Amino acid sequence: MCTLEKRGDLFFLTLTGDDDHRLGLPIIDSLLSAIAEAKSQATRGSVFITTAQGKFFSNGFDLGWAQSAGSATAARARLNQMVLAFKPVVVALLSLPMPTIAAVQGHAAAAGFLFALSHDYFLMRRDRGVLYMSEVDLGLPFPDYFTAAFRSKIGSVSGRRDVMLRGMKVKGEEAVKMGIVESAHDSAESTVEAAVRLGEELGKRKWNGDVYAEIRKSLYPELCGVLGVAIATPKAKL
Question: E-strand spans in the chain?
Fold first, then answer.
């Protein structure tokens, strides 16, 4: 599942346990509750950092649960449940009134990759862990909001092609070169430490959270359109 901890102005959401953090319905509910709690406590200077325990950041949706349904039709229905249930997580991160940072300490695949990419800043370790969109290898189409997120967040056409059509497994240094992540670090600990330094730097700016969230949404109009997120122009409070 996950925990939420507040240290000064920094919120830490941690995927707990040493498994691969499959995004089944229970953990999706847990993520939504944690993000909502952070939003309710947000003040000027707040920053939201997500990380995980163990080898994986997240290995995507719980395909084992889907496949245990007993038939191909039932498995597809369960997979669709998870696709629909995860959409509000992307919406919540897109709308969160504070900067967001993913400190990816291990493998991030499929929906787990999207989860990390949904943050404003994306840091990962270089020595272990890869980014991988497994859909093309599994014979699964991309949900519309997945495609919109990757078009919005990865500027390189060839990078999107390699990730989505080739199923390329991207390590830290390559991810930096492709413009997917901010930086790559030597260990899980140094990745989180870098995220904390970045969070503290951003928090010092004491931005208006509502304005910050609206500017973020305005950067990704296609993604907002697919997600059904309205882009407003709030009045600044000086």
Answer: 2-7, 10-15, 47-52, 56-58, 100-104, 107-109, 121-125, 131-132, 183-185
| DSSP state, residue 170 | B
Kindly report the number of other CB atoms within 10 A of residue 47's CB atom: 27
Estimate the share of the chain in helix, then strand, then coil, as percent rounded to the nearest 5.
50, 20, 35
Q: What is the CATH number of the domain that holds 99?
A: 3.90.226.10
Q: Among candidates 186, 182, 179, 184, which has minimal Cα distance to 163?
A: 179
Nearest C-alpha neighbor of 15 from the set 39, 35, 37, 44: 35
For the chain, the C-alpha Rg in angstroms (whole number) is 17
In a domain, 148, yes or no: yes
Structural contact between residues 3 and 16, judged by C-beta atoms closer than 8 angstroms = yes
Per-residue confidence in pLDDT tens, the chain, 238 aa: 899 999 999 999 999 987 899 999 999 999 999 999 999 999 999 999 999 998 999 999 999 999 999 899 999 999 999 999 999 999 999 999 999 999 999 999 999 999 999 999 999 999 888 999 999 999 999 999 999 999 999 999 999 999 999 999 999 999 999 999 999 999 999 999 999 999 999 999 999 999 999 999 999 999 999 999 998 875 655 5
179: phi > 0 → left, psi -120 to 50 → alpha, else beta; which?
left
Per the listing, tokens 């500027």 go with 155
- Answer whether residue 232 is part of any domain: no
> Is 12 inside a domain boundary?
yes
- The domain tally of the chain equals 1
